[in-house]
């Protein structure tokens, strides 16, 4: 049985998960090509008692599972899921989100109580304290001292490689340490003073509403297209700016100036590309950067305002 160790650094909790045979290809991908890695731990905000974190690889975005549970709410606590949103998630208690999900493993029974303790800690971090919780994933028994991001694919085009490397370096710097621009937005330090009537709460809401679909929908969607269809490079060049230019310009106005610049330079570099693999290398670097920004924005948003909107009793 192949086993993973899942460690939450700040609460100092480690659990063991068995990789199961529900989706052997996905389990092989995690075991052979993803671990070891680390990430910022997020907690579900609309699903229930569910932990998830961003993976440092685009491969899960376009790898289809062999099997999905029809209703994830019926999964046993400790079930580990792999999502095409580029996440690994773990159910640790009751869920409301019944959408299908692809299981790849399960936390061992002896560690379920520890998993629930980690889940409660991560909920407090997301909802109230804003403590950044780092999660580390490795093969059980491996001694790992460093968790660098995988290097991006090479393109052989000097100007494109410089841009890809700059985006990669920015992603690495903020992988487990919040990016200054996101911190500034959540502190009201926005040079444009975006937000009608001299407030920035609505700006934080719109920030989330643009970053999430830019990463999950537009950029990850483009990666899925280049890996699962035979669209020619010329077509990809034509459609890409239409998916990413307008939201990135708005996000620059709200304070994400680096993202706006990276997106502009990415669209300008499209004409330099010679094949679809080079396109994948460029877009995957930008997609991971945007999805990293999304993890931090979701973590830092003042979700404790939720106490002002309780559901009425049934």
Structural write-up:
There is one protein chain. 46% of the residues lie in helices and 17% in strands. With 314 residues, it is an alpha+beta fold. It has two domains: 3-139, Cyclophilin; 158-303, no CATH class. The protein has an eight-stranded antiparallel β-barrel with strand order 1-2-7-5-6-4-3-8. A hairpin with a 4-residue loop joins strand 3 and strand 4. Helix 4 (158-173) packs antiparallel against helix 8 (257-269), helix 4 packs parallel to helix 9 (276-300) and helix 7 (233-254) packs antiparallel against helix 8 (257-269). The longest helix has 28 residues, at 201-228.
Radius of gyration: 20 Å
- Per the principal axes of the C-alpha atoms, what is the gross shape? globular
Counted beta strands: 8
Approximate strand percentage:
15-25%
How can the largest sheet be summarized? 8 strands, antiparallel, barrel
> Could you give the order of strands across the largest sheet?
1-2-7-5-6-4-3-8
Structural category: alpha+beta
> How many H/I helices?
9
- Pattern of helices and strands: EEHEEHEEEHEHHHHHH
Total domain units:
2
Distance between the termini: 44 Å
Helix-strand layout with pairing:
Layout: E1 3-8, E2 13-19, H1 24-34, E3 37-43, E4 48-54, H2 59-62, E5 79-83, E6 87-95, E7 102-107, H3 112-129, E8 134-139, H4 158-173, H5 180-186, H6 201-228, H7 233-254, H8 257-269, H9 276-300
Antiparallel strand pairs: 1-2, 1-8, 2-7, 3-4, 3-8, 4-6, 5-6, 5-7
